[in-house]
Write a structure and sequence with these properties.
The complex is a heterodimer of chains A (about 575) and B (about 200). Chain A contains 18 helices and 2 strands. Chain A is globular. Chain B has a domain of about 130 residues: Immunoglobulin-like (Sandwich). Helix content of chain B is about 20%, strand content about 30%. The longest helix of chain B has 27 residues. Chain B is elongated and about 80 Å long. The C terminus of chain B is likely disordered. The chains are: A mainly alpha (about 575), B alpha+beta (about 200).
Chain lengths: ~575, ~200
């Protein structure tokens, strides 16, 4: 590995201080390390705040509990969306970007002062957004559809946050340039970094879209612009709102590969295939703004079909490829490790006691089965008529963002704490339990909200008994059951979330220091290799026979096709419309 | 490993495993099937959202809805004060969304086609017909004409499912579907006051 600090040309390089990671041999720029720590800590703090809000929402929708008043419910729901969908996720993604560039490439980070400015802007934006919402004049939901108007500071807060995140993206790109310039690695960038590049490119698109719509909306709230077109707002806003979730997808897929590499030594089956799948994301994922506009008046069906399908489902193909190559690379690695018995010996002998691995694999399964399939069904033009603005929508995106992204981020934290914070996880047994509790809770939230949505229950709704409505109505009894189960799942997920926050904070503050002597043990239990380094050749050479993975994707594909066509059958029973 | 640069520098020439190729082909073909399914449904399916949409001044839409309600009023909905309008089969029907009600109440005949005009007087609202579960977004200033054919008789509710302010959860409407040719009769009172 070449040494950046000896590069004579750059002044920045001379001033940079590195340490060598005892586990991986990577050189870690201390400035990058401080930035990763700050962003990760901010992320966890806002996850805690947003998680409490989420629990309050679920306990209010549980009709038997019905915790909050209507006013507080809509306020807390707005804050919940902001804090977890935007603030927690993007802070953590900044940490991921700095990690995937500076640390993985053993490079110094570009312009650390700019990165700090970005961090401060994001923090200021996040705090201002929370304060503004809590003041009560901005209960407009995360989406803030005009003509519903929030106080100007609500939009300003989002703009500040977005600008900060944009700076972070450019620091990431700058670091890639430096690493290449200073030859800190040879050949092409690693797959994990390639995934992070995908996330960062989508992030730039996302943030630009946010700026394009939020700046005029802010001026409108101040009275400088008289009118915001409602349809235009949604079209551009969702280029931010949905694309920001595509940053998550790219980031957590990169994390799946990362965790698989660290815990079982997985190599990509094929660099070409995995990278092409990421490329599909860059090219097509952003079209999904249309997912929110499928029952909107004034947009043509041609536009809806092309965009909602990400141009003939090429981005879905990208996800399906990752859905096979990630477990495939794990199976190949495990078979190389010597676990060759049967179809699923490799999976049975995977390190399920390691929270990083367990979280990663559960994230993969839940994201694919619950989030992926429901997302495609929801994003089908006509099927959306049965689901738009019902609880099916939050059900779907809790499967992607909570059971998928958040679970993956939690899983990787169990590697970040020993590797970057250089502290051991303080209660490893509890950490192991935490991942499963959170995963079950998140899966429950997603499933039961989707169930309630299938029964027609509206999202963002305080009272499913309609007790104050002049024209009375009530949803079917099964909907009440679904929302009760959703409340119980939320309690479980919140318990898992609280354990995560407590474990991470206590480990950082009081965990045993990690050094060369104990670093391997600090990463959690790893599979014991039955065969030592039997195959060291590239990729999947010699292990192309992956029966377990073929069975897994076969089950997935069957579930996908069946569920897809069942929904068309339901649709055909609706009142005819044209 | 995935955290290291590819082992061979010319990684794009590496062969792809057969299993991977099969899966990629399957994913691609499945994508095409799903894509063409939406187009097929436009040709053969009966549930497609109408593209008939006009820009309209909200005040004009309010006025047209009021004229419609007056012309076709057959009774009031219990003691709620809502007029019940029963348009002729095949004719136009209007429904106005405003904070926090869907107005007026409609009475339609089963198996007949209606041109339902929906729009909003103020904010964005959601037209969520329950329990059939048909959901359409409603914008102020945009008139959407959906041709619908009720296939079941009974009492149906319209729930607002786009957040529109603190009274959002009170915002409901109603559509009665009666058997064809059946004379409209005052329905038993079912307001929310009693519980």
């Amino acid at each position: 590995m070449s040494v950046a600090a000896t590069h004579s040309g750059a002044i920045g390089a001379l001033a940079t201080k590195f340490r060598t990671c005892p586990a991986t041999g990577l050189k870690v720029d201390l400035a990058a390390e401080r930035l990763i720590k700050a962003n990760a800590v901010a992320a966890v703090v806002f996850l805690a705040i947003g998680g409490v809000f989420g629990l309050l929402v679920a306990l209010t929708r549980w009709q038997a509990v019905h915790l909050l008043s209507a006013e507080w419910f809509y306020l807390v729901l707005t804050a919940h969306g902001l804090d977890v969908l935007l603030v927690w996720i993007i802070f953590f993604e900044m940490a991921v970007l700095y990690f995937a560039s500076a640390v993985i490439l053993s490079s110094r980070i570009a312009a650390p002062r700019w990165a700090w400015l970005g961090f401060i802007l994001m923090l200021a934006g996040a705090l201002l957004a929370n304060v503004t919402v809590l003041q009560g004049e901005s209960s407009v939901m995360f989406t803030s559809y005009p003509p519903l108007q929030a106080s100007p500071n609500f939009y300003l807060a989002l703009i500040l946050f977005a600008v900060g995140a944009l700076i972070g993206c450019f620091v990431f790109f700058g670091t890639l340039v430096i690493a290449k310039e200073e030859k800190t690695y040879e050949g092409s960038i690693p797959l994990v970094t390639f995934g992070a590049v995908t996330a960062a490119i989508i992030a730039v698109f996302t943030i630009a879209s946010g700026a394009i719509i939020l700046i005029p909306t802010w001026l409108w709230s101040l009275g400088y612009i008289s009118h915001i077109d409602t349809l235009m707002y949604k079209l551009v806003w969702w280029a931010m709102g949905h694309s920001s979730q595509q940053i998550n997808v790219s980031a957590h897929v990169a994390i799946w590969y990362l965790i698989a590499a660290v815990t079982v030594g997985a190599k990509p089956l094929s660099e070409k295939v995995s990278r092409t799948a990421f490329l599909m994301y860059i090219l097509f994922l952003q079209l999904a703004s249309a997912h929110h506009l499928l029952v909107e008046p004034g947009l043509s069906s041609e536009w809806k079909i092309v965009n909602t399908s990400y141009m003939m489902y090429l981005a879905v193909m990208g996800s399906m490829i990752h859905g096979m190559t990630v477990p495939g690379s794990i199976e190949a690695a495990q078979r190389r490790n010597g676990f060759t018995q049967g179809v699923f010996g490799w999976l049975r002998n995977a390190p399920w006691g390691n929270p990083a691995f367990a979280g990663m694999f559960l994230s993969l399964v839940l994201f694919g089965f619950l989030g992926g399939i429901s997302g495609v069904v929801l994003g089908t033009e006509q099927l959306n008529i049965m689901m738009h603005n019902t609880l099916y929508v939050p059900g779907h995106f809790h499967a992607t963002v909570v059971a998928g992204t958040t679970l993956a981020f939690m899983a990787v934290t169990y590697l970040v704490v020993p590797l970057i914070f250089q502290r051991q996880i303080i209660w490893p047994k509890l950490a192991k339990l935490q991942i499963y509790i959170f995963a079950i809770g998140a899966a429950g939230i997603s499933l039961f909200m989707m169930g309630a949505g299938t029964l027609g229950v509206s999202r963002r709704h305080w009272d499913i008994t309609f007790s104050d409505a002049t024209l009375s109505f009530s949803y079917p009894d099964a909907a009440f059951l679904m929302l009760g189960l959703n409340g119980l799942s939320a309690i479980l997920a919140a318990t898992g979330g609280a354990l995560y926050v407590v474990i991470v904070v206590c480990s950082i503050l009081f965990g045993k220091k990690v050094d060369a002597s104990n670093v391997a043990a600090s990463l959690g239990p790893m599979p014991k290799k039955v065969v030592q380094e039997a195959v060291t050749k590239y990729g999947s050479a010699g292990t192309w026979h992956l029966p377990g993975t073929y069975v897994l994707v076969g089950v997935f594909f069957t579930a996908f096709v069946l569920y897809y066509f069942v929904n068309w059958k339901y649709l055909s029973e609706l009142w005819p419309m044209q | 490993m995935s955290i290291h640069p590819p082992e061979s520098r010319v990684w794009w020439n590496e062969p792809i495993a057969r299993g991977e190729l099969v899966w990629i082909a399957l994913a691609f073909i499945w994508g095409l099937i799903m894509f063409f399914m939406m187009i097929y449904w436009h040709l053969e399916g009966k549930q497609n959202l109408s593209p008939e949409v006009y820009r309209i001044d909200p005040d004009v839409f309010i006025q047209r809805t009021e004229e419609f309600a007056e012309k076709f009023k057959v009774r009031e909905e219990g003691d709620t004060g809502f007029p019940v309008a029963k348009p002729a089969p095949g004719a136009d029907a209007y429904m106005l969304a405003r904070t926090f009600e869907w107005w007026p109440v409609l009475e339609l005949e089963r198996g007949q086609q209606y041109r339902l005009h929906i729009s909003s007087a103020d904010l964005q609202h959601g037209f969520s017909l329950q329990p059939t579960n048909i959901n359409i977004q409603v914008h102020p200033g945009i008139e959407h004409i959906v041709t619908i054919t009720p296939t079941q008789s009974g009492e149906f509710s319209v729930v607002c499912n786009e957040y529109c302010g603190l009274g959002h959860h009170q915002m409901t409407g109603r559509i009665h579907v009666v058997e064809p040719g059946q004379a409209s009769a005052p329905q038993p009172q079912t307001t929310g006051q009693g519980g």
